[in-house]
Design goal:
Largest sheet: 4 strands, parallel
Order of helices and strands: EHEHEHEHHEEEHEEHEHHEHH
Helix content: 25-40%
Strand content: 15-25%
Low-confidence stretches: none
Shape: globular
Length: 253
């Protein structure tokens, strides 16, 4: 079976299922695991080269709608008559279902069910562990600096915050991605700031830019030097690697 993944999180799900040998092409941002880095690159995940994808003669294209603008890829796949499935998860539990769906499509039904159940059981264990924490520091997740976007209540990072024994300051917003502004963040005064700018490597994120924002020097997170530059790849992709991100998050809180 020949598989093409046009989103990093889908590539990581295939890797979690131990099926990377089926991949024949990936998007430009797929960088995990190591063995997929030499595969043909099909363009940025918002602008996939459909012609190049078709030339690989895939049996299945793993597409996504996790980022606004990916609809263009779906239209291109439709027009080219390529077989595809869309993976579009907002929650940690939905990622478990993605493992089942993709696994069954790849012909590994029972094995995929086992992998999915292992992942979901780990979530339950982490939930029990988090419930025992008495203090719950508040977190502000910055997805994008201008305009300011942050995860709302319907996003895996709100769940990840709780699994770390903390609380997302925008958890009550009934959406996956919430647009806000510097003043509102300042008003909510988080204990910690987590920088995870989508598509930006951590070495290119500068915490000093946040410290210079009007009034932000008064916030608890800034006063106490609790601005954390985190790996975007471990927090912004809906794949099982989010649990690796969680392990890192718990070390800084």
């Amino acid at each position: 079976m020949r598989i093409v993944s046009i989103c990093p999180s889908n590539t990581e799900i295939v890797a979690y299922l131990n099926q990377t040998e089926l991949l024949v092409g990936v998007d430009n941002y797929s960088d995990y695991p190591e063995e997929i880095r030499d595969l043909p690159k099909l363009g940025p995940d918002l602008s996939i080269d459909i012609q190049k994808t078709a030339e690989l003669e895939p049996d299945l294209v793993l597409a996504s709608l996790s980022v606004p603008g990916m609809e263009k890829n779906i239209e291109g796949l439709e027009k080219a008559g390529l077989p595809y499935m869309i993976i579009d998860s907002d929650s940690l539990a939905e990622i478990g279902e993605d493992l089942r769906r993709i696994g069954h499509e790849l012909g590994m039904g029972e094995e995929a069910d086992v992998k999915a159940e292992e992942y979901l059981q780990e979530l339950k264990r982490l939930e029990n562990q988090a419930s025992q924490r008495k203090e719950k520091p508040t977190l502000y997740w910055e997805w994008w600096p201008k305009p300011v976007f942050t995860p709302g209540g319907k996003n895996w990072l709100t769940e990840l915050s709780r699994l770390a024994g903390a609380e997302n300051i925008f958890a009550e917003e009934d959406t996956a991605s919430f647009q806000t502004d510097w003043e509102e963040v300042k008003k909510r005064n988080p204990d910690h700031i987590c920088m995870v700018w989508v598509g930006v490597k951590e070495e290119k994120m500068n915490p000093d830019l946040l410290r210079k924002r009007p009034g932000w020097g008064e916030m608890k997170a800034v006063r106490n030097d609790r601005i954390h530059v985190l790996e975007e790849s471990l927090f912004c992709r809906p794949s099982p690697r989010l649990l690796e991100g969680l392990a890192k998050l718990t070390t800084v809180l």
